[in-house]
Design goal:
- It comes from Phormidium yuhuli AB48.
- This is Pentapeptide repeat-containing protein.
- The chain is built from one helix and no strands.
- It is rod-shaped.
- The protein is low in regular secondary structure.
């Protein structure tokens, strides 16, 4: 009797513990194997496609080249498993643990990793386009040069993650924790970042054009030379942020707080600055042509050599501001 046949018979008889099994190349597709314990097993090239292994224990198992397409592994333990070159397209791993798992060369298209734990996992160069990672734990994960275009990362924890060169264009990051991360040059074009925490993040030269940053926290963030053209920054917190040479043309900053922000040489042409707080902000040689300043507060801001073309000064508060010619506003 083959070991796979013996496993199936024993499973149907109520047995669940099959640790350290050798099922290399076994065909186990479409089977119901919920709560099975295959920890530390040899499962290389096994075919588990469309099988149900919810709540299974596959920790420390070898699954190199395994076919796990459309498998159900919700709440499963895959910690320290070797999934090198495994086929995981369409798989459901909701709430699964993949701490320390090896995923080099794995096919991950259409995978559902909602609430999954991926702390410290190496996903360098992985194609995660459109993948569901909502509320996933990605602390210390290596996502450098990964493709996360259109991925769903709302509520995800990315503290300490390596996001060097990652593509997050069109990604859903509402409420994501990106505090203090190095996001230098990252592509966030059309990304959804409403309510995200980007405080003290390094976003130097990042592409945030047409992104949604409603109520996002960018307090103390480095946005030097960042592209924020046509972005939505309604009620965003940009206190003490570095926006030197940033492109904010046509951006909507309604109600945003830019107290003590550095906007030297920034371009805000055509931006909506309704009710924006610019108290003690620096706007040396900044361009503010055709902007709406209704209700904005520029008190004690420095606008030396700034361009204020077609600005209605009566609409804003300018108390103690240094004007483009160096004089104080009265």
């Amino acid at each position: 009797m083959s070991q796979s046949k013996q496993l199936l018979d024993e499973y149907q008889a109520g047995q669940r513990d099959f640790q350290a099994s050798n099922l290399i190349g076994a065909e186990l597709q479409q089977l119901q194997l919920k709560e099975i314990n295959l920890a530390n097993s040899y499962l290389n090239s096994v075919d588990f496609s469309r099988a149900n292994l919810d709540y299974a224990n596959l920790s420390g198992s070898f699954l190199c080249g395994a076919n796990l397409s459309y498998i159900k592994l919700d709440e499963a333990d895959l910690s320290h498993a070797d999934l090198t070159k495994a086929k995981l397209q369409g798989a459901s791993l909701v709430g699964a643990s993949l701490v320390g798992a090896k995923l080099s060369g794995a096919s991950l298209s259409g995978v559902n990793l909602r609430r999954a734990t991926l702390c410290g996992v190496n996903l360098c160069g992985a194609n995660l386009a459109g993948v569901n990672l909502r509320n996933a734990d990605l602390r210390e994960a290596n996502l450098s040069w990964a493709n996360l275009q259109g991925a769903r990362l709302s509520g995800a924890n990315l503290n300490g993650a390596n996001l060097n060169g990652v593509n997050l264009s069109g990604a859903w990051l509402n409420g994501a924790d990106l505090q203090g991360l190095d996001l230098d040059g990252v592509d966030f074009h059309e990304a959804k970042l409403s309510g995200a925490n980007l405080s003290k993040a390094n976003l130097c030269a990042a592409n945030l054009s047409e992104s949604q940053l409603r109520v996002a926290s960018l307090r103390g963030a480095n946005l030097r030379a960042a592209n924020l053209e046509a972005s939505l920054l309604v009620r965003a917190n940009l206190v003490a942020a570095n926006l030197m040479k940033a492109n904010l043309q046509q951006a909507d900053l309604t109600g945003a707080d830019l107290t003590e922000a550095n906007l030297n040489l920034a371009n805000l042409d055509g931006a909506n600055l309704t009710d924006v707080i610019f108290r003690q902000a620096y706007l040396w040689k900044a361009s503010l042509a055709q902007v709406n300043v209704l209700g904005s507060n520029f008190s004690h801001a420095s606008l030396r050599n700034a361009t204020l073309e077609a600005v209605n000064f009566l609409e804003g508060i300018w108390t103690g501001a240094t004007m483009p010619d160096g004089s104080l506003y009265h």
